[in-house]
Amino acid sequence: MDNILFLLSFVMLFLGGEFLVKSSVAIALKMRISTLVVGMTVVSFATSAPELFVSIKSALDGITDITFGNVIGSNIANITLVLGLTAMVFRIKITKQTYLLNYPVMLFTSALFGAILFFTNEISQFTGFIFVSLLVGFVFIIIKKSRKENIQFSENEKKEYQNSVKTPFYVSALYMIAGVLLLAFGSEFLVNGVGKIAESFNISERVISVSLVALGTSIPELVTSLVAAFRKESNLAIGNLIGSNVFNVLAVLGITSIVHPISLSKSNDLSVPFVNHPLFSDFCWMISSTILLGIFIYILSKKTLNRIEGAFMFLFYIGFMCFLLVNCI
């Protein structure tokens, strides 16, 4: 039965990604906002749902290495694995909003996360409220900016999705809910299957969370972004990934810490600085992947991601997995 659910999870994730992309585009057309904004908000929150569920459960169970490792590993996978593979499939154009606002916010939230752990060794309830407040402010700004600029779809996009425009709003909402549910349950089945395989090899919780669990909870982002790329919705793809990384820090860690404060694992002396904790090396990989994306966007190809850069990011992820493997031996 477990093997059947494991295989079924891939079908559920594909269908969930397809439903989510179609409904997101339809809602964007109806609300006259860009697919980038929809990807940065609704789709990002939806595809971050598995990380949120996993983090809350692990925090309540006192397994905080999974909580932190899941977010760190997922952010690495989103930028290097998911965006890398997506760029290898389809050249991604970086919009002005991503260039000026969205990427800087992602870099800031990643650095803020590391700074808080460096100075406090935990994410308290108060910090959680700050994270959620920052997220609400960020969402408000990008929606207001989109409406102010009155971003319109091209005639080709309107023609391609004219059936979506005619579809009633509640039908699009139902498709989105169905997509979210398929992604959530599909991810759960996949994570459970991967977790059982990992446990049989007696791997530490941190390594499992940063690698396999993070990979499993990043599957929705991968499916959604690849589907968006094939449908030539590159704005939705890049918006989904950058938004998901912002949501992982501000929403996943924020909401989880409000439910239950998150501190570094009790198996380690909390008086020891964050730099001496095993998760510090994983965080360095995360911030490095974020900086790498910035180099590609601002310095090299400038405002685009091509196949070569996508392949380089994918190799970065392979290097990270090899690093974890070597440290497990």
Question: How is this structure best described in words?
Answer:
- This protein has helices at 2-31, 35-47, 49-60, 64-89, 96-120, 125-149, 155-160, 162-166, 169-199, 205-230, 234-259, 278-298, 307-328; strands at 92-93, 122-123, 262-263, 304-305.
- The two termini are 32 Å apart.
- The chain has a single domain (2-328), classed as A middle domain of Talin 1.
- The longest helix has 31 residues, at 169-199.
- Mean pLDDT is 78; it is low at 152-157.
- It is an all-alpha fold.
- Helix content is 81%, strand content 2%.
Q: Layout of helices and strands, plus pairs?
A:
Blueprint: H1 2-31, H2 35-47, H3 49-60, H4 64-89, E1 92-93, H5 96-120, E2 122-123, H6 125-149, H7 155-160, H8 162-166, H9 169-199, H10 205-230, H11 234-259, E3 262-263, H12 278-298, E4 304-305, H13 307-328
Antiparallel strand pairs: 1-4, 2-3
Helix pairs in contact: 1-2, 1-9, 1-10, 2-11, 3-4, 3-11, 4-10, 4-11, 4-12, 4-13, 5-11, 5-12, 6-11, 9-10, 10-11, 12-13
Main attributes of the structure:
A middle domain of Talin 1, mainly alpha, two-stranded antiparallel sheet, single chain, 81% helix, 329 residues, two-stranded antiparallel ribbon, 13 helices
Q: What is this entry, summarized?
A:
With 329 residues, the chain is mainly alpha-helical.
Q: Strand-and-helix sequence, N→C?
A: HHHHEHEHHHHHHEHEH
Quickly name the level 1 CATH class.
Mainly Alpha
- β content, as a range? under 5%
- Rg, please? 19 Å
Number of helices: 13
Which blocks of ≥5 consecutive residues have pLDDT under 50? 152-157
For the record, give the distance between the C-alpha atoms at the N and C termini, rounded to a whole number: 32 Å
- Give the name of the CATH superfamily: NCX, central ion-binding region
Biggest sheet: strands side by side, in what order? Answer: 1-4
The number of domains is 1
CATH topology: A middle domain of Talin 1
Number of strands: 4
Helical fraction equals: over 70%
Structural class, from helix and strand content?
A: mainly alpha
**What is the makeup of the main sheet?**
2 strands, antiparallel
